[in-house]
Amino acid sequence: xxxxxxxxxxxxxxxxxxxxxxxxxxxRTGGLLEAGADVLLVCPDIASSRLREWKEAGAIRxxxxxxxxxxxxxxxxxxxxxxSGELNGWxxxxxxxxxxxxxxxxxxxxxxxxVPAVVRRGGLVMSVSAxxxxxxxxxxxxxxxRSRYGPEYANLTxxxxxxxxxxxxxxxxxxxxxxxxRAAVSDRAVAVWLSMGTLPETEELVAxxxxxxxxx
Length: 216
Hints:
Blueprint: E1 15-19, H1 23-34, E2 38-42, H2 49-56, E3 61-63, E4 77-80, H3 85-97, E5 101-104, E6 117-121, E7 124-128, H4 135-148, H5 152-170, H6 174-183, H7 187-195, H8 202-214
Parallel strand pairs: 1-2, 1-4, 2-3, 4-5
Antiparallel strand pairs: 6-7
């Protein structure tokens, strides 16, 4: 089985090319848009109604033509999502030859990366992959994560970001900061953040974190 190194990559405002206007192209495009990408869709016709809606709304750009290597100009990554495995492989080969990260929707081994099942809750991004061998397993585990971590976790990540900023500004000693930030994600702390409307002032916040850290 091919081995992968998991990373999260920033593609905001970067050109990402999706080749294929069907259901798979729709799913891949949706994920790219969630990450803020500048999506260029290349296909003669768009079969997906959602892709057509995104095009009409100006969320994506569409080249109504067959793919050609020149379409990769300026791209940061490419998704080959046509109905042909052979064509997908050729697109990936052309992308990799240009130093562009590529994914084949039909054969993970032809590309340079795979697309995991993703659950987003604001800044919390959870991804699951079976290294291309079991997409159904990835989808099952992602569904479990989606149930376990509900929409309220989007607000939690925003709160934790604010907590971290205040701790970094108020506490100079690195070991103490680490102790307080670990306390900030304890079960007790998470329950408080989820129920709290606004954070207390920095001095009170740091005192709370110290109390929680010392009681662990």
